[in-house]
Amino acid sequence: MDAEAIKQSLENSGLRCTPQRYAVMAFLMEHNRHPTAAEIFEAVNRVDPRSSRATTYNNLRDLVQAGLVREVAVEGRAARFDAKGIRHHHFICDRCGNVEDMEWYDVPRPASGSLGKRILRECELIFRGLCKKCALPRASRKLS
Amino acid sequence: MDAEAIKQSLENSGLRCTPQRYAVMAFLMEHNRHPTAAEIFEAVNRVDPRSSRATTYNNLRDLVQAGLVREVAVEGRAARFDAKGIRHHHFICDRCGNVEDMEWYDVPRPASGSLGKRILRECELIFRGLCKKCALPRASRKLS
DNA sequence: GAATTATTTAGATTATATCTAATATGACAT
DNA sequence: ATGTCATATTAGATATAATCTAAATAATTC
Questions:
Q1: Do residue B23 and residue B47 come from a single domain?
Q2: For position A132, what pLDDT does the model report?
Q3: In this structure, are A92 and A45 located in the same domain?
Q4: Does A64 touch chain B (CB under 8 A)?
Q5: Could you give the ipTM of this predicted complex?
Q6: In chain B, which residue's Cα lies nearest the Cα of A80?
Q7: Range of the domain at A49
Q8: Nucleotide nearest residue A59, measured CA to C1'
């Protein structure tokens, strides 16, 4: 997503495209690794324009309210954020605690029998509560 | 689960059954509403024996390490806890943010085609990211 | 360009969690 | 029973994450 597109999506949501706000949004678009507010603050301050801690928090709040960003549910103290570019959910592994992005399928409402094979494969992982790596048979896994 | 059973499960995990630790565990067994540490601290201090804040945190840490309790992944600042009585996962609604307990199915490893109807119904909700209430057709939902 | 509104800022404050070091308790060998 | 050792508890200090405050700055409108 290029600069102009980010600017547009901010303005479509009624947010002015300030340099600080743009920096937060752009960082989240580029790095979909669910950073904390502190990580985002650090990252945007490695280059101009600088931004204060309060502004970073304010902008994250505004972006979440506007629906462009969401707060990811994770264990641990610090909130983590995620640009909602392509719609997806999160899956947290029971064993290793990793947060994995999960494709979003627009399942037609009443069609219980119509889930595709690919979806079925993901369902298995979900009901085990293990991520793809941890769900491998014991032998092929590194001990942790 | 009665007092003796709780005592046993603590001791089986190598933890002494102290009054304070017992109180935390018993509270989590009774109230599976994913309370915060602060809520647990308050609750156990409404009756004897009293417990300090540090002890409550220590005991929660010990119980999590022992595998008797787990920390629930949620948005928001405060960690939330959950007794791992019956194995289950958590499902967080995209719309309302509620945390729902989700039954744990022991899906046999390679049988992609063998998920039951009940599981399929849950899969639909998961892939929508909405809880049972929020997944109802618009008309039958209260606006939030 | 004056008035209005939105944004940013440093620093103070609140909320949550952990650490420290002193004390208390329980297990158990003698 | 008593002393010893490991474990647990405690109040208070500290650390970390988030929010608030009030003043300054920038953009927008009239």
A1: yes
A2: 63
A3: no
A4: no
A5: 0.77
A6: B75
A7: 3-83
A8: C7
